[in-house]
Amino acid sequence: MALKKFCRHTGCKKLTTTGYCEDHPKQSYDRKRGTSAERGYDHHWRRERKKFLRENPLCIDCYALGKLTPATDVDHEIPHRGDKNLFWDKSNWRARCHSHHSQKTAREDGGFGNGQE
């Protein structure tokens, strides 16, 4: 028998063995969000991301804390939410380690129990 865990849907306290409870099927979030390519993260993005990380090799958040940590992610400081001009505005890009990028994204998007949907 599998161990039950809380439903992965933000704020839901129902227990399940499948990740999402019967009230929150996984496809509801994924369908609204679209694929990474549909959101603009295609081969053009991958090329520009790689170039940006070569030019900005350190995580800006770690650096501010006095740590030298390689940047692995390119973050949009102001979330673009589908705005192509903001998506491609390099002055809005920040080099971050995966940990700091995940923390910032969770704060903005309601992850880790923030209750936003």
Describe the structure.
This protein has five helices and four strands. With 117 residues, it is an alpha+beta fold. It has a domain of 64 residues.
Kindly list the characteristics that best describe this protein.
alpha+beta; 5 helices; two-stranded antiparallel ribbon; globular; single chain; 117 residues
Rg for CA atoms: 17 Å
Number of strands: 4
User: Helix fraction?
Assistant: 25-40%
**What order do the SSEs take from the amino end to the carboxyl end, as H and E?**
EEHHHEHEH
Sheet of most strands:
2 strands, antiparallel
User: What spatial order of strands do you see in the largest sheet?
Assistant: 1-2
Bin the strand percentage.
5-15%
The N- and C-terminal alpha carbons lie at a distance of 31 Å
* Average pLDDT: 85
pLDDT under 50 segments (min length 5)?
112-117
The dominant shape is globular
Question: Summarize this, please?
Answer:
The protein is an alpha+beta fold and 117 residues long. The chain has five helices and four strands; from the N terminus they run E-E-H-H-H-E-H-E-H.
Fold topology:
Elements: E1 5-6, E2 15-16, H1 27-33, H2 43-55, H3 60-64, E3 73-76, H4 84-88, E4 93-96, H5 98-109
Antiparallel strand pairs: 1-2, 3-4
